[in-house]
User: Fold these one by one.
Assistant:
Number 1:
Amino acid sequence: MRFETKVIHIGQEPDPSTGAIVVPIYQTSTYVQEAPGKHKGYEYSRTQNPTRAALEKNIAALENGKYGLAFSSGMAAINTIMNLLKSGDHIVAEQDLYGGTHRLFTKLYTNYEIEFDFVDMTDLEKIRRVIKKNTKLLWLESPTNPLLKIIDIQAISKIAKENDCLLVVDNTFATPYFQQPINLGADIVVHSTSKYLGGHCDLIGGAIVTSNKEIYDQLAFYQNAVGGVPGPFDCWLVLRGIKTLTLRMERHNQNALAIARYLESHPKVRKVYYPGLPSHPQYELAKKQMRGFGGMVSFELKGDIEQVKKFVSSTQIISLAESLGGVESLIEHPATMTHSSIPKEERIKSGLSDELVRLSVGIEHQEDLIADLEKAFEVI
Ligand SMILES: *Cc1c(COP(=O)(O)O)cnc(C)c1O
């Protein structure tokens, strides 16, 4: 079955008891048993819920993995992967990470004596240099956030195997429609379903996919033991969003490319970051590893931080807000918003300047979006 068909059908067979074509919202905490331990596979909704099971099966299929797990947020999913570690373990992570992931690693897990090295993973030698005996995980996002670097997942999966560590890929930005890390050798894929999978800025959720039974069993145990599970209604919303994922991603991609080209030719823009532009340093790798480039575009304005703040506050159709991946376009200032928890020195070192603006390009008409940006340029 092809991707476009999977999004609509996997895990979503008509309800056996009523024939309902849409998976029902099983809004229940517990399930009646015939005799102690004799039941239909469901005991308590922290452990299992049919609406959640449908979502888990669907996301696993989209990522071409065997097992899926759904969570109450992307961070709950990420935290559950961290439960695989013990104190004394070491992680090598890409330095350009989602701000919340960076915060969880450096502000919480360092208290549990887990060590981190953050490196620029476009340079494979840097990864090899920091791997140690106690390195357990390599952690990356591609495209990265917010600089949209493309990391070579296949090459890094080889390094992970050579060194007996697991490779985790946060595939939130690309979505399984554009990139399937398990096919490229990743052991674990993680998502914030709050973004493109949900797709409508109306829910918070997360997911994990793996094809490794042992890892799945451990993560499923932690999912139940810790309890960061999504409610059935949120699972239903994600399933509903996923049905149009292919259509939305095509339009996000077309609009983002048009806007990236417009920005690249704009006199008030210093630099544009978009993997679909031939000027992007990993353009060839992006073409090889992905089947589209996504809806995120970042760019540096010429001017000072006050002008940048004025610019992001001046668009009318494009809303000033954190988050991404919805049908509506959003603009934000990473230095003072999504990435403000990263110490300034570290932030600048990783290339994330005060003048950087991040756009989550929605599925509106691209000419309306470009006209909106043009008006904002006129006020600075
Ligand atoms: C949003 C996001 C997360 C965190 O997900 P939440 O659903 O907000 O908890 C993790 N990784 C990436 C790349 C994200 O964009």
Number 2:
Amino acid sequence: MDHFLYRNGELHAEDVPVRDIAAAVGTPFYCYSAATLERHYRLFDEALDGTDHLVCYAIKAASNVAILKLLGDLGAGMDVVSGGEYARARAAGVPGERIVFSGVGKTRDEMRIALMGGIRQFNLESEPEMEALNAVALELGVVAPVTIRVNPDVDAQTHAKIATGKSENKFGIPISKARKVYAEAAALPGLEVVGIDVHIGSQLTQLAPFRQAYEKVAVLAQELRADGHDIRRLDLGGGLGIPYTRSNEVPPLPSDYGAMIKETLGHLGCEIEIEPGRLVAGNAGIMVSSVIYVKEGEGRNFLILDAAMNDLVRPAMYDAHHDIVPVAEPVPGGEPATYDIVGPVCETGDTFARSREMTAMQQGDLVAFRSAGAYGAVMASEYNSRPLIPEVLVRGDQFAVIRPRPSLEEMIERDNIPSWL
Ligand SMILES: *Cc1c(COP(=O)(O)O)cnc(C)c1O
């Protein structure tokens, strides 16, 4: 459930007509619902009720500081994958003890930033990374809390670009090598082993791959404890999928996911961390765009929007489907039409949807891309010198621009012409 509904013939974001926001900020723009973000965070928090846990929002899904502050104020931890994301979490007021640092290639500079600013744990992914963090910690005179990300070699059955838990993926250490690598970590004086980490992919629509991975983690936890390691925390990653279409299969609910976690891992008495990103932010955001032209092609009609692949890359990058709906509610018996929905960028890949059936549209009409809150604004670029589009946050009947649209001057001023040119 989200808070983008038709009321009085107009799409609303909570209590605000989307058309009013478009009039105030111009299109295209992203719009997030505070109530939806809050609801999704609480679903996870409640799913783990009764177990010691921390929901660490994976901020790479949508990292605007206003969104991080909203979630942080509810008690969320944060999963960060770069020094930049760490700085964002801190700027949102999230204390270091609620921040976990993931990622396959943390640099020494990033490790230093997090160790000096405070960190709950590093999720390490290789032996060279272990050695680097050990060196940085010793240099700073601190001990770094760590888990090691194991690769359980399970098929997440998701898009190949976002599957991370098979042995051929670059992530983690093979689970078969885990005991050896944990022994090496324990021998490094700058590291303190606190648990195990696993993350098998994104947009998973079934529980079975999670279950397979977590069962392997449960076995490993017992083995590592027998080897003398104090395994007290399990970071189970993110990855729970969302429904991108109304008709599609319905992914598991956070409550079922939580129940499965308790069932597979509850007996270990560990503190549980989960890192949901997409499920928190995905259906909490839309992208709103205007129709620039309706173009009649040979055998097909094109809806040319003012948003493009640089603003929302998921269709071009992952062949992703987004529901695209008119902001003015279609009237029953309205004229139907079929469109290829495209942006203005000079690439055929700049296609949001092919042969999409919807109501007939005209120049200037507004459309909303549903489920655009995660991996939307954060993946945007200025390709074709199109300035990054603004982000807006709605709560009840209020809205605010949480990132403005840069002017063309601001975009160009970042370039520098050398004096010798
Ligand atoms: C991307 C990522 C997540 C979040 O994945 P979602 O599918 O958005 O829930 C969590 N943990 C790690 C390590 C990730 O790389």
